[in-house]
Amino acid sequence: MILTREELMPSCACGKEHSLITEKIFIARGAADAMPDAMGESGLRADFAVIYDGNTRDALGGRIRGAHREIVLDPKGLHADERGVAAAEDKLGGETILVAAGSGTVHVITRFIAAKRGAALISVPTAASVDGFAAGVAAMTLGGFKVTRPAVAPRLVFADTEVFARAPRRLTASGFGDAIGKYVSLADWETARILTGEYWCSGVAELMQTALEEAAAAAPGIAAGEEEGCEKLMQALILSGVAMQLVGTSRPASGAEHHISHLTEIGVPWLPAVDKLHGEKVGVGTLLSLRAYFRWRVQQSDALVRAMQAWRQPSEDMLRAEFGPAADAVIAENAEDCLRAVTPDAIRQKWTAVKARLSLLPQAAAVEKLLRSVGAPTALEELGIDPDLEGRILRWSPYVRNRLTFMRLMGASSAVSDIHCCLGALE
Ligand SMILES: [Zn+2]
Ligand SMILES: [Zn+2]
Q1: What pLDDT does residue 415 have?
Q2: Per-residue pLDDT tens over the stretch 248-270
Q3: Which of 64, 96, 79, 229 is closest to 141 using CA atoms?
Q4: What mean pLDDT comes out for the span 382-401?
Q5: Residue 73 carries which DSSP code?
Q6: What is the mean pLDDT of residues 178-206?
Q7: Distance from the alpha carbon of residue 230 to the mean position of ligand 1, in angstroms
Q8: 3-state helix, strand, coil in the chain (%, to 5)
């Protein structure tokens, strides 16, 4: 399939002037063959450098032709950090077009460097493993901290089915977990709109929801490594980046499920270091969120109103006890508690609408089956986390980001009221 910028522009009445750097997306067998012509049509005629890692260069097997320079990074210990960036930059010349040819890490490094030098970016994903291929930001580890830096979104994307459908199964399963998480992100985004009037775009939400449902329906094909199914997954992952570009934030693609994943990465003292792929953690976070949302949406609005009236942001001492070395960053992030935007009146008036939106979520059991069918983890134990920590994870993960989610609202409510069903062990 070929998706063009014109087709991807939402028809909506959200009031925002959407912009999209990405002009064309090729997801097909032999997509890389379209590179020379498509680059020419987009005016990308200058010398270009390709950045691979050793594995992705082999996977592409000479499909990218005409490069002025090829940089092959050592995949061992390669991370999106200062070392990874320096390893690529040291070998670059004056090229003004950079091609990211790989999976997540190569893309993050390349789009970060492209932003630094004002270069144009072309994306050639080699595995359907993460959702950031078309994103305009880079989640990096700099100075030992996870940070998000401005980066360049790709002008063109060439996802060659023959390459990514043959990627290691674990990478594809991880990408499926990342994609399936959008059920929760989209529900969180719309819930925030209903309760606080936060900016929301029906066109972008629909674009994402449709791609997500197509990927979910393709699970049997993905599990079997069939090209058609893998294309649906790749489409959903690339469109997540497109959705982020269209609204200018990660809102459509990151909610409570990503906060759970993120919590395992920032070194909180009571969680072990989890050496798993991003999408594997997001998949488990999605199941925890779906189960919690299912239980919580039966709350009565009166109890919630009382809870919000009693609500106080956790003290700095509490946050320090929970987050340890990451506490300074968490305290700074939450200086303006996003829950303050949720007024008791909003709960009174909008609770029925919130419940209606949450009732559109799929059953956790169905999503668990899908994840399992593609070989993705489905339980905390599989991530090496004690399942007894679930309640604590649900309660504190929303604080990694000051973004209103249903998880944040319910976790807070349970902390100050008689709403006891929210936390603790699951049935
Ligand atoms: Zn993700
Ligand atoms: Zn819009």
Answers
A1: 67
A2: 999 999 999 999 999 998 889 99
A3: 79
A4: 94
A5: E
A6: 98
A7: 17
A8: 55, 10, 35
* CA 88 / ligand 1 centre spacing (Å): 24
- The pTM for the full model equals 0.94
Domain spanning 180-416: which superfamily? Dehydroquinate synthase-like - alpha domain (1.20.1090.10)
**Which one of the ligands is nearest to 185 CA?**
1
Residue 55 CA to ligand 2 centre (angstroms): 39
Helix H or strand E segment including 247: helix 227-247
Q: At what angle do helices 278-296 and 256-263 cross, to 10 degrees?
A: 130
Contact 108, 80 (CB under 8 A): yes
Architecture of domain 2-167: 3-Layer(aba) Sandwich (3.40)
- Give the DSSP letter of residue 145: E
In the chain, domain spans: 2-167, 180-416
Pull the structure tokens for residue 270.
């009571």
Looking at residue 32, what is its pLDDT? 93
Contact indicator for 73, 54 with CB cutoff of 8 Å:
yes
What integer pLDDT is reported at residue 29 of this predicted model? 96
Phi, psi of 398 (to 5 degrees): -60, -20
